[in-house]
Amino acid sequence: MMTMHMFARWLKSPRPYLMLVGFALFLGFWYLSVEAWKLPRFREMPGFTSVIKEWLSPDPVYGLSIYTAEYYTHIWVSIWRVAQAFFLATLLGVPFGLFLGWSSKFREYVFPVFETLRPIPILAWVPLAIVIFIATESAVIYLTFLASFFATALNTMLGVQSIDESYIRAAHCLGAKNRQVFMHIVIPGALPFIFTGLQISVGVAWFSLVAAEMVSGQYGLGYVINTSYMMVRYPTIVIGMITLGAVGYATSAMVRILGDYLMQWRVRELALGGN
Amino acid sequence: MDAAAAQLAGRAATAVGRGAIRIEDVVKIYDPEGAAVMAVDHCTLDINAGEICMIVGPSGCGKTTLLNAVEGFHEITSGRILLDGEVLCSTENPKAAPGSDRIVVFQNGALFPWKSNLENIAFGPVMQGKLSRAEANEKALNMMADAGLSGVEHNYPGEVSSGMRRRVEIVRALMNDPKVLLLDEPYRALDSLTKSVMHEALLEIYYKNRVTIFFITHDLEEAIFLGHKVAIMTTRPCRPKKILDVDIPHPRDYSVLTSRRFRELMEETNEAVHEEALKAFAAGEKEG
Prior knowledge:
The complex is a heterodimer.
Chain A (H helix, E strand, L loop, with lengths): L1 H11 L2 H22 L11 H8 L13 H34 L1 H14 L4 H11 L3 H27 L2 H9 L4 H38 L5 H10 L3 H29 L1 H9 L3
Helix pairs in contact in A: 3-11, 4-5, 4-7, 4-9, 4-10, 6-7, 7-9, 8-9, 9-10, 9-11, 10-11
Chain B lengths: L2 H14 L4 E10 L6 E11 L4 E5 L6 H9 L6 E6 L2 E5 L11 E4 L11 H11 L5 H14 L15 H13 L5 E5 L7 H18 L2 E6 L2 H7 L2 E5 L6 E6 L14 H24 L5
Parallel strand pairs in B: 3-8, 3-9, 6-7, 7-8
Antiparallel strand pairs in B: 1-2, 1-4, 4-5, 9-10
Helix pairs in contact in B: 3-4, 3-5, 5-6, 7-8
């Protein structure tokens, strides 16, 4: 009911139409620059109509369209990898970040190491990952996991540190023990930051997944893009890219919806703020 | 004296016998090895059980330090603080253990925004294991109805007015049947109209509960209107400069503000407060 109502209101607001205009301008520029004006830099680039034709064709020239089972295998493999890595990163990163924020002793031991490892780009981890994990699949998941884990843990830690000291004092005053303060104050208090972290985390998961799939793997959207490049199937590259964009957007939206669901207090507060 | 009267007197005595605070020669020095800032200087103050004691001083004069010592958020350097004859902290044991017999209502409010008003109020007894969640909810609902908070039980604190949030916070404290309420400039951020409503609401709650109130403020008018006793503090270091017994009888309402006695008391104390405000201004102390 609520969502139907919200959807109806959304349709009445100017937002969906502005969004459509935004897309139309972007796609129009693509079409004009490649197919109509034939700008020199864009000569080798697949045009808008040829990509759409290939994508929607039951009999695609380069073998990949919405009618081929292989297309969905690639999507599914990528989603499944991201899901595993993201789940693992959340499962480990949130508690890790909570303890980093909660215990200054733990932070003193661990944080300098953490901060040294965190800036290392995922691509720099590729050779080691392949050496450590003989199986390609676990190497890809490990690389995807890594970036997600750092984003989640760091934001969770910042979330704990952002909690107003008065909440913790008030809870002690009201007779809460340390463990209860952790459960009732620290975790919910850090939740807004945790979900910011998860939004970033799911984004970097896709980023590092594609990097990992380009280096090793036999399926997945990153693999599609890389092999299509080597085999000069340019429209398929763009199909892979658009698909990545759409799937990435969807996963990010799912994290946001889950966050709103878990933080009703915040949604309601913001709604009153005349958003 | 007949039996009923004796019983009544006895009950009154027990009611009055709860929540007497004695602050004895308390000194607080921040950073004794370094900058050695003296925040509280040999401060002695007696607050009778069931009394509203207003602590008045300019911002940053060290009044909050005193409150933190009573609650147990900070250590004292020397002296003693007693609650009903029991030592909370002393030179030997400088930090009081925070407990639900002394509950702070914070300057900026500390209702947990992720819990509904009802959950906030039920929090104390549930955490202490004194009441089951159902029992605590029932008690909380009754207390909310009593305090004019019906209808916002299932709202989050962020959804109600700031005046109402303050009331919820006081009810949350009273849920624990505390001996002392420690209020740290709770109405500072409210506009003067809301403030006057809040004063009467606080008094109404107080007349029902008669809990000792340790109330920090920089507003002299607020202090004389609410307090049995007004302690005007010197600025950094903080120590009582003048202790005023307000002889306007309780229960009070807003007509007190225009009474002659009120104006006399204001005149009597205004200068002392102003002097300290000038000193604080000259010293350029920051909020705190």
